[in-house]
Every structure is written in structure tokens, then in C-alpha cells.
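Q: I have 123 residues here and want to know how they pack in 3D. Can you give me a structure?
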Amino acid sequence: MPHSGTWFAWIDGFGTTHTDKLAQKVTIPADCTHAHLAFYLHFDTAETQAGAHDTMTTVVLDSSGTAHPLATWSNTDAAPGFTLRTFDLSAYAGQTVTLRFSGTEDSSLQTSFVIDDASLSTS
């Protein structure tokens, strides 16, 4: 079920060794003083053993292709409902960057990473 509307992005959730990636190129205006990425994130997992077995990482690939990690989550972060996540991207003003979400599961038990209502606001 999405946070709002009809659609959402669903990464992983297969319960087998698997990697999913979702990426979008965006241009952050050179004259902005504030740029913020926001999205709602939900985790669902069947993992029962302690430790991080499945992970999702959010990174910014700058205009030269260098990856700058924003955050990493795992099956240990699973909780009911969606949580708003926000990141300051002001340092990338004047660049076209790629926002990438990458999820990796191990060989047993599923973890789903669900992203919804993603937005980039600038001012």
C-alpha cells in the first residue's frame, strides 16, 4: 500500500540473493540556496536473526560520477508505516546529479524497501 496516491517504488522483497536499483537524474539550479530531497520509506522484513542481512543505500552521484552516500538502512530498521526521510542537497547546486536507491538481499528471508512521495525542492 502506498503512502499516498496509487503508485510507489518497491525494492527487493524476493527472499533470495538479489539486488535492485532505482535511479533518477535531476538538475539542481545553480542559483538555489536550499535543495532538499524528501521521501517516505517503509521497511517490511521476514528476517528473524539478529543483524543486518538485507540493506538499502541512498546515494548521490555527483556530476563527475563520484558516489556520496546519504544513508544506509537494513532489515533491523523495519517498523510499521512510512517514515519521512529528508536530506540536504544544497552542496550540489549547479550540478546534474543522479539520486540512486540500491537494495541488496541475502539468500534467505525477504526484506522489502518501499519508497513513496519522493520530491526535490529548491529555493
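Q: Anything worth noting?
A: The radius of gyration is 15 Å. The mean pLDDT is 95.
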